[in-house]
From TrEMBL:
Annotated Tc1-like transposase DDE domain residues: 142-291
Lineage summary: Eukaryota, Metazoa, Ecdysozoa, Arthropoda, Chelicerata
GO function terms (MF aspect): nucleic acid binding
Chain ranges of the Transposable element Tc3 transposase-like DNA-binding HTH domain: 64-103
Protein name: Transposable element Tc3 transposase
Pfam families to which the protein is assigned, alphabetical: DDE_3, HTH_38, HTH_Tnp_Tc3_2_like
Limits of the Transposase IS30-like HTH domain: 3-43
Superkingdom classification of source: Eukaryota
Species for this entry: Stegodyphus mimosarum
One cellular component term from this protein's GO annotations in UniProt: nucleus
Length: 298
């Protein structure tokens, strides 16, 4: 019987990683598509797997050094340059990079961006969650709101796509400052979506109050009933004395919202769905009029 091909460096890394989680040899073999015997042989031999002689150029890093590099990389706090200075290894950045890649445990990816949360913000979020976790019909009475900026050239961060290597690469052309933009305000509640407002220029407290007068008050009871409450974030124009006075004069009760918590607002899901339709197939717009029309149609 012919011998099976040897495990690749990536397969070896996968086996080590899966084995460290307590997964059985049989389960690992099924997951990576190799035989149980091959998996067991590798786990038994580890660093000596596949070695027939000691000839050839010696490895730049020992197995112990490689494990240390991977251990530090797993914290997510080290670049290849910082790994060299921290470990004191006498190797180049390319060697560190290849060691990380061969382990099969890591992919080089951008960090997610989220608001900075101080301890007091975390406490506020926790207290808010504990307060509303038992809510049921109370959610029906809340109108969620937020502003969103739309660029003519599409949203930031949407320039990636799955490239078919048989075709020419697509080119993403972007104008200065995104080619122009449109600012909108919107809201929704249990019974549906409110009217969308297009804001001219930079919005201030007075402009915000005008939006609420023209787009919130006429639709509020239809969206959330007679006892409706209004949700907004803690932007300066939302929490200014002028805006607070407007709420008092118009008998609008607001929901106390924890600072730096856009992820808690469900309207972000609504904006995301709308953005995917507006910018479908990488669409760009030549004018703000065209962009506004598309937003309204969607």
């Amino acid at each position: 019987m012919a011998k099976g091909k040897k495990l690749t460096d990536r397969e070896r890394g996968e086996i080590e990683a899966l084995s460290s989680t307590g997964m059985s040899s049989r389960a690992i073999a099924i997951k990576i598509g190799r035989s149980k015997t091959v998996v067991n042989n590798f786990l038994k031999l580890k660093d000596n797997y596949g070695k027939k002689n000691t000839g050839g150029r010696p490895k730049a890093l020992s197995s112990r050094d490689e494990r240390r590099v991977c251990q530090l990389v797993s914290t997510g706090k080290y670049s290849t340059r910082k790994l060299i200075s921290t470990t004191g290894l006498k190797v180049c950045q390319k060697t560190i990079y290849n060691t990380i890649r061969r382990s099969g445990r890591f992919t080089y990816t951008a960090k997610l961006t989220k608001p900075q949360l101080l301890q007091r913000h975390k406490i506020e979020r926790l207290n808010f969650g504990q307060k509303v976790m038992t809510w049921d019909n109370q959610w029906i009475e809340i109108i969620f709101s937020d502003e969103k900026k739309w660029n003519l050239d599409g949203p930031d961060g949407w320039n990636f796509y799955w490239h078919d290597i048989r075709n020419e690469k697509e080119i993403f052309s972007k104008r200065q400052l995104g080619g122009g933009s449109v600012m909108t305000w919107g809201c929704f509640a249990y019974n549906g979506v409110g009217s969308i407002a297009f804001v001219s220029g930079r919005m201030n407290s007075q402009g915000y109050q005008n939006v609420l007068t023209n787009h919130l008050l006429p639709n509020a009871e239809c969206l959330a009933g007679e006892n409706w409450k209004y949700q907004q974030d803690n932007a300066s124009i939302h929490s200014s004395n002028s805006t607070k006075n407007w709420f008092q004069v118009n008998n609008v009760e607001t929901v106390k919202w924890p600072a730096r918590s856009p992820d808690l607002n469900p309207i972000e899901n609504l904006w995301g769905d709308l953005a995917r339709r507006v910018y479908a197939n990488g669409r760009h717009f030549t004018s703000t009029t065209e962009l506004k029309s598309t937003i309204e149609d969607e």
